[in-house]
Write a structure and sequence with these properties.
9-stranded mixed β-sheet, alpha/beta, two-stranded antiparallel sheet, Rossmann fold
């Protein structure tokens, strides 16, 4: 079975755009939205049981600066909900696209109809270096720089997406954003860029899922539109998934000179319901989930490896407003209790 992934990328091409190996680790001109490549990829051999993301078989409908007419037609009337995915650190172009395909199939496998989505990915130019010891934190810092420099391109991607999601919503679809790890660092740069370029409030996302966010824990404290402080103006609701057992983010905190990460213990002052009203923010503590193979890298991947976390995300995709139940007490470490 082939999985369709619509995508945009600000990776500089070093060959034909129809060849996935041409998407390198360089970035297109920082202020050139027209240099962003938009296309459609087809991925096969996604295996949820073996945790393998499959392989890119074909790339077509390639266009610079915006979606092709074919993609516009598909995304404007998808016949199901839309999932917009931003990958994290340590992802090659192939990783980014195949992981998007994996996520589409992973959430569809929840059995919740609302989680059976069409997926759109934004692939920023991570080096895609494998984690090894000693850890290549020079590569980490390069990725972090690239994620930050991708803010304008990601903002332009959102601008191209906006009329399509408006039409999709008019046709009965809902629209979700899923940003993982350092994808949240790129996201904060895009949100800040959106408003600093004079764009106003926009109903882009019904729900923004921030999973294991490798972004400052005080990102919502900045004066608007700094960092993620204005994300609430683009998303109807925000769900933040964090884990004190995330070993990757523990190292990231050290590399970032002791700056706590949003994905470790949630946002600064997270217990302040006036600051984070439950109707607008969901704070989901995943520290106790052990319903999947748990190791160093896996501790950072619970959003796509834990069936319990998947169920929470899928049910949140299906719920609307008052249907979202309040948070329950946190589970004890070792528990697989689901939080909502």
């Amino acid at each position: 079975m082939l999985t369709t992934v619509y995508f945009a990328t600000n990776r500089a091409l070093n060959g034909s755009a129809s060849d996935w190996q041409s998407y390198g680790t360089g970035i297109v001109a920082p202020s050139d939205a027209g240099a962003v490549t938009y296309a459609t990829a087809f991925v096969d051999n996604t295996n949820l049981t073996a945790d393998t993301a499959g392989a890119i078989q074909q790339i077509q409908d390639i266009q610079q600066g915006g979606f092709s007419q074919s993609a516009i037609a598909d995304l404007s009337a998808p016949g199901r909900n839309l999932l917009v995915f931003i990958h994290g650190f340590d992802n090659s172009f192939e990783n980014a696209i195949t992981r998007a395909a994996f996520n589409r199939e992973w959430f569809a496998a929840s059995g919740v109809g609302a989680a059976d989505t069409s997926v759109v990915a934004f692939a920023w130019p991570s080096l895609g270096q494998l984690i090894s010891f000693p850890l290549p934190w020079g590569d980490y810092k390069k990725d972090q720089t690239m994620a930050g420099q991708s803010g304008f391109h990601l903002m332009s991607f959102f601008a191209n997406l906006l009329p399509l999601v408006q039409q999709a919503r008019a046709n009965g679809s809902r629209v979700f954003l899923l940003a993982h790890s350092m994808g949240n660092f790129a996201l904060q740069a895009a949100v800040e860029s959106w408003f600093s370029h004079g764009n106003g409030d926009a109903y882009l996302f019904d729900e923004a899922f921030l999973a294991a966010a490798d972004e400052q824990f005080n990102t919502f404290d900045f004066p608007e539109p700094g960092r993620l402080s204005s994300l609430h103006r683009l998303a109807d609701r925000i769900s933040i998934y964090f884990s004190g057992a995330d070993q990757v983010l523990s190292i990231s905190e050290l590399v970032n000179l002791g700056a706590e990460r949003l994905g470790q213990d949630g946002p600064d002052n997270r217990t302040d319901v006036a600051r984070f009203p439950p109707a607008q923010y969901r704070l989901v503590n995943c520290t106790g989930f052990r319903d999947y193979p748990f190791d160093f890298a896996g501790s950072h991947q619970y959003y796509r490896r834990s069936p319990g976390v998947r169920t929470d995300i899928a049910q949140t995709m299906a719920a609307r407003g008052s249907e979202i139940r309040p948070l329950e007490p946190w589970p004890k470490p070792g528990s697989d209790k689901r939080l909502t």
